[in-house]
Amino acid sequence: MMTMFEGMTSSALMQAMDWASGAQATDNPYAQYTSLIFLVVMFALFYFILIRPQQKKQKERNKMLATLARGDQVVTIGGLHGTIDSILDDKVVLKVGDGMRLTFDRAAIGSVQKKTSAGDTKKD
């Protein structure tokens, strides 16, 4: 019993041998387009299975990083839990423990655990 991979490779090898010998398939005028159609279908599958979901995740992450606000409880990509104390252009200062403040790149924020509403932010 042939597996699907063996069937595809043997079919591709037979087509390559026919092409190399100069033989033309006269019974099917569209035989020369089967490889092209196969490549287009494979590219479409890769796009919808691999590329598009990754683009969606990246878009959601960029939105999450853009909407960070003072008072949000976040977790960094290293696993550090803290509350955002201040936000600069590309830096975030997290308050952890008893008044300890650590500065991270904005890209180091892995997730937001608890979002504060606009009225909840207060000055120290």
Automatic annotation (TrEMBL):
GO BP, sorted A to Z: protein transport
Keywords: Cell membrane, Membrane, Protein transport, Translocation, Transmembrane, Transmembrane helix, Transport
TM helices/strands, residue ranges: 35-51
Membrane topology of the entry: Single-pass membrane protein
Entries under InterPro entries matching the protein: Preprotein_translocase_YajC (IPR003849)
GO cellular component, one term: plasma membrane
Location(s) in or outside the cell: Cell membrane
Chief place where the protein resides: membrane
Similarity comment: family membership: Belongs to the YajC family.
Listed name of the protein: Preprotein translocase subunit YajC
Source organism: Candidatus Carbonibacillus altaicus
